[in-house]
Amino acid sequence: MPSFPDQDWGLAGGYETEVISLRAGVFQGEPDGGLALGKAFDRVRGPFALAQIQLTCGPERYQGALTLGAWHSEDHFERLDRGSRSRRGAQGAYAVLDQWIWRPDPEGDQGVGAFVQFGWAPEDRTELWLYLGAGVRTKGLIPRRPQDVLGLAVYRAEFSRFLDLPRRAEYAFEALYQAQATPWLAIGLNGQLIHHP
């Protein structure tokens, strides 16, 4: 999305209840930054748009959230399948399931949770076309450190078969520990092992 140093215009909005959340946004499709506010709409291209719906459900102690989203870009994409010209437009979809597995207090933020992520984009126009990720996180497992967070995750990112790469996919394993040093300061350690970067 357009952000520094390629800031440009965008508009986002949403609606939320205890059960459902709707969000959508539309942004400049080819941001180049440096535009004065008065000239922001002199060069409108794109757009890049995305929308998502999130459903929260399940018993309070084991409540989970399912997020489904899609995006569309009207930018020009070089054909990776050695097509004769670039192609205008690409789209993709994603899904995230975030679920409590164990929570001692149904209204608290401590316990054990897990997540699964999925992302897709067209293989002939995007270098990364398939993403799968999963992980687990805990908060408050150490009795004297009730606000500390520990997380473990793994992901697989698959590259387009039209690219000339020695391997088709990248794998990563990640570990995170975040210590709540004071009420206003958290210190985090994050380690990643990337296989076939």
List the helices and strands and how they pair.
Elements: E1 10-16, E2 20-27, E3 48-57, E4 64-77, E5 87-102, E6 111-120, E7 128-139, E8 149-159, E9 169-182, E10 185-195
Antiparallel strand pairs: 1-2, 2-3, 3-4, 4-5, 5-6, 6-7, 7-8, 8-9, 9-10
Which H/E pattern describes the elements? EEEEEEEEEE
Low-confidence stretches: none
Looking at the structure, what is the overall shape? Answer: globular
Span between termini: 24 Å
Q: What's the alpha carbon Rg, rounded to whole Å?
A: 20 Å
What's the helix count? 0
Query: How would you describe the oligomerization state of the chains in this entry?
Result: single chain
- Provide the spatial order of strands within the biggest beta sheet: 1-2-3-4-5-6-7-8-9-10
Q: In percent, how helical is the residue content?
A: under 10%
Q: Could you tell me the strand content as a percent range?
A: over 45%
Report the biggest beta sheet as strand number plus sense, adding barrel if it closes. 10 strands, antiparallel
What's the rounded overall pLDDT mean? 87
Give a count of the beta strands, DSSP E runs of length 2 or more.
10
* Broad structural category: mainly beta
Q: Can you describe this structure?
A:
- This protein is mostly beta strands.
- Helices cover 0% and strands 57% of the residues.
- It has strands at 10-16, 20-27, 48-57, 64-77, 87-102, 111-120, 128-139, 149-159, 169-182, 185-195.
- A 10-stranded antiparallel beta sheet has the order 1-2-3-4-5-6-7-8-9-10, with no helix packed on it.
- The model has no long low-confidence stretch (mean pLDDT 87).
